[in-house]
Amino acid sequence: MSEIKIGDxxxxxxxxxxTRSIQGVPGDFNMAFLDLIEDSEDVVWVGNANELNAAYSxxxxxxxxxxxxxxxxxFGVGELSAINGVAGAFSERVPVVHIVGVPSTSxxxxxxxxxxxxxxGRFGAFANMSKEISQASTLLQSPDGAAQxxxxxxxxxxxxxxxxxIALPTDLxxxxxxxxGLATPLSVEVPANDEKAEKYxxxxxxxxxxxxxxxxxxxxxxxxxxHCIQETKDLIEKSGLPVxxxxxxxxxxxxxxxxxxxxxxxxxxxxxxxxxxxxxDVLITVGALKSDFNTGNFxxxxxxxxxxxxxxxxxxxxxxxYPGIGMKGLLPKLAERxxxxxxxxxxxxxxxxxxxxxxxxxxxxxxxxxxTQAYFWPRMGKFFRPKDQIIVETGTSSFGMLxxxxxxxxxxxxxxxxxxxxxxVGATLGVALAAREEKLGKTCLFVGDxxxxxxxxxxxxxxxxxxxxxxxxxxxxxxxxERQIHGPERVYNNIAPWNHSLLLDLMSAPTSEDVTRVSAxxxxxxxxxxxxxYAVRTKNELDQLLDDPTFNAGKExxxxxxxxxxxxxxTALKRQAQATSCANKYE
Amino acid sequence: MSEIKIGDxxxxxxxxxxTRSIQGVPGDFNMAFLDLIEDSEDVVWVGNANELNAAYSxxxxxxxxxxxxxxxxxFGVGELSAINGVAGAFSERVPVVHIVGVPSTSxxxxxxxxxxxxxxGRFGAFANMSKEISQASTLLQSPDGAAQxxxxxxxxxxxxxxxxxIALPTDLxxxxxxxxGLATPLSVEVPANDEKAEKYxxxxxxxxxxxxxxxxxxxxxxxxxxHCIQETKDLIEKSGLPVxxxxxxxxxxxxxxxxxxxxxxxxxxxxxxxxxxxxxDVLITVGALKSDFNTGNFxxxxxxxxxxxxxxxxxxxxxxxYPGIGMKGLLPKLAERxxxxxxxxxxxxxxxxxxxxxxxxxxxxxxxxxxTQAYFWPRMGKFFRPKDQIIVETGTSSFGMLxxxxxxxxxxxxxxxxxxxxxxVGATLGVALAAREEKLGKTCLFVGDxxxxxxxxxxxxxxxxxxxxxxxxxxxxxxxxERQIHGPERVYNNIAPWNHSLLLDLMSAPTSEDVTRVSAxxxxxxxxxxxxxYAVRTKNELDQLLDDPTFNAGKExxxxxxxxxxxxxxTALKRQAQATSCANKYE
Lengths: 587, 587
Description:
The structure is a homodimer.
Chain A: E1 3-5, H1 6-17, E2 21-24, H2 31-39, E3 44-47, H3 51-65, E4 69-74, H4 77-92, E5 96-102, H5 105-109, H6 125-131, E6 136-139, H7 146-160, E7 164-169, E8 176-178, H8 195-211, E9 215-219, H9 221-225, H10 229-239, E10 243-245, E11 260-263, H11 271-278, E12 282-286, E13 307-310, E14 314-317, E15 320-323, H12 327-338, H13 342-352, H14 373-383, E16 389-392, H15 396-401, E17 411-414, H16 423-438, E18 443-448, H17 449-455, H18 458-464, E19 470-475, H19 480-485, H20 503-506, E20 531-536, H21 539-547, H22 549-553, E21 557-563, H23 571-583
Parallel strand pairs in A: 2-3, 2-4, 4-5, 5-7, 6-7, 9-10, 9-12, 10-11, 12-13, 16-17, 16-18, 18-19, 19-21, 20-21
Antiparallel strand pairs in A: 1-8, 13-14, 14-15
Helix pairs in contact in A: 1-7, 3-4, 3-16, 8-12, 10-12, 14-21, 16-17, 16-18
């Protein structure tokens, strides 16, 4: 019987699931595993600048690849630095396996006073902390059953689209186990629905929708996370119904689709879209995730009795709840049933559907030259091309980009529920790595000058890895989303001013060859990116740059500093900020 | 009866304890509290670049001020980003109060699907995580009892020298409570020892030490953390015994003290020191914290029966354990008892004490010009002046600086137990803030090019706050401590190469005035530091710079890039790395 090291077993499973890049930071308790990663021909080690960034990057990578991403850190110090990034993946339903190199089983058993411990012998404290934000955990203690444990947690990660945690002691990494299990890939499909129950639900749902005169489909996050995009598209096309998207569902359905009408976010939606969605007599939601920022602060107006909610593991129709009936199985059958009246519905859809397009504001008066928020986002919408990935920081960028119509097969990547400041910069690295592997289009980041500072060092990793994303930095003198919510003139919303023109040059090798990088370990260094900085101050400058073929070709990593007015914000953000401010009110 | 807002009550208590600077990052759930901080005349808000750095900075601030430092973050995203820094404070026994702005009590009660939540209604998850690394927590839910809860946790933080956690809901910050309690400052003294038990222990300890011919005192971390430095000094001077220090106890006793002989770290100590400590017939440890990196991987050679261990809350003599008998009360009495034979002991001490000094290596052959590790650390030892603070990153710097003799009243600041990479950069901000408040000497950071990248953005906060630390960056092409432990030619120990000459310029306002900072919120901006970069490649260049009066004056923030050879390491690190590698062995 052939044998394999436990560490290699984990790598093989990750590769089977589709992972090629592994993120993290070395530490003395994980280097035995890093040896195997570095020696593997199937995966690449991405050395991140710090662990939080690595977690954000794994999150971004997973979103594009649609599979389990891997993050490797070291016991205590490393894993806790990453934990906010993993919590974000839990919140946003992104499968990341967090593999933590931990002290040897004997050191743990002896409760030794090791570095990277709390000094009180509690070796389990960090795993306890991770449990709160993991769908499953395993603390490997012996080669016996190790393969089964690895398989168990990886299957849960993939199936539930949530992070899992593996503690890998130094003395087990190179221990041999049977490789037999690897012959059978992990089964990560969701279980089929109970046939009879599904048929019943199908009848009820079909009747509900067929009785409706103006049903509407609303696509949300979990359609993406649980891989139901094709099924949803079939439902739309076979039913002939109009479809809208929530912010977290943006680009699940191509925004140039003939039945697509734009973004619905409750009360902060444009009037046109709101009227159609809120006047519908049945609202069919696919993969709904009704968080405050995803629903205009819980302001859907559709009565409960008129909704059909299709979820990953349950269905609700009006007030009836059908546990265990998931959308993966239900969607194709419902699409089939609804196809009978497709033409009739399509006619109505075409009549009522608002036109969603990138419309630039005309004549902005005193802001004739200034790059306003109202101008910037639809202008960016015209810049993108199919298969581009558009990563937006929570705040000005995530709300602003809702107003842009994005091209087909592009991907809108945002962290609207967890909303951790600085996430987008780390995520951009992972997105860019995945895009290179999958041969996608441009990777474009939109981040404010405040958020950028939290995670800026990861741009160095992008350069080192030879990646060439477009980094749009919105320079508006601080934390604008916070100012919109509270304290527009408060000092605490200011930041240390940076000279962004130097950022790319800082994070690349000095041209003066001060450092002679002669070690053998540099033999296979990837070719670092060339780099270019642009300052853009007027609409005209922006237009010229965005139309420049060299710029569009993206042969270098490009940082575009867009100077915008402090206090200006996208309309959707202004409305959301008012609602949040009201919810947080203290006087 | 006069009333005060809960938020102001917390601020007043912090001020009473001695805190003037509060660290953190704004978020929508903490801005109500930040308003009060900004409006207070007693404290200053330090807006950090990110939360982990803020936690590190609070840690550094607390170490210098010797009191509870405050860290303010926002629910979920902010607090989890900071949690590794707080865990470090727990491990290293540094009192930090982590105040987290959380959603309103009503939103928590309704389990709303808010941004910054896990999306499953578990509002308690983050507080649960912090419990593992906090000495006490309080989740404020009502004005009733809020003052008592705040007092309770702050008292524990100060008394136990550990972090505590306060969850402060948005709707409670401005609620009024009685201010009566503030008239009585918190009692943070450790409780007195039981008189009879203490006397018994005193007799046993005195007999033990008086019977000894060659007793030795070893000062460690907890003598510093639990404010027993003066008592320890009295013990040394009244007993006439020789004193050594562990790495974590370095500078607790002035290194030019007549009875001080240097650093003891088990088997990795210099032979001279080792012989005296290990041939002692009684080893008196004060505040011992026997972690691997603090003991040369557990290689003390003193037999258990010959030790007297004085701890914060207990004492051990040989195999006898005396719980509840703490050193704060015991030390002065023991000193008094031992003073009888002071002269006799002092004579022996002077005979046997090795000379600890900064001795430069002579004639390094092919490294005549190269700045070697053997040269650098004693050379730096000659540079420092009384009251300087010397912050060292775990790794090359922390082990290297052990070899330097530091001037009296200087402070060695290191994170030897927790050892979180990047900590020193954040900590330097807090140390520099505290040093300015306390009018101390130069703030000097020693960090490698690898560690720097994890937390580099906090240098922007230093500049913004007008601080002028000396930032020594050891440029040696990657993670040298990891290379010493494992994989010297592994790619995973490489880093993205940076052009450090641009770092200070990046993190300060562009000179071109691209950003017009006209908002009223900038009215009271502190004057940012001027800045200067130096590249130092040879011994000669280093000597010249360190002797330059302008450089020494430190009127600007100065980044000194010291080019050193990859693969070179301080002797103590080489020995420790071997031991760690052996403990982590996997084949």
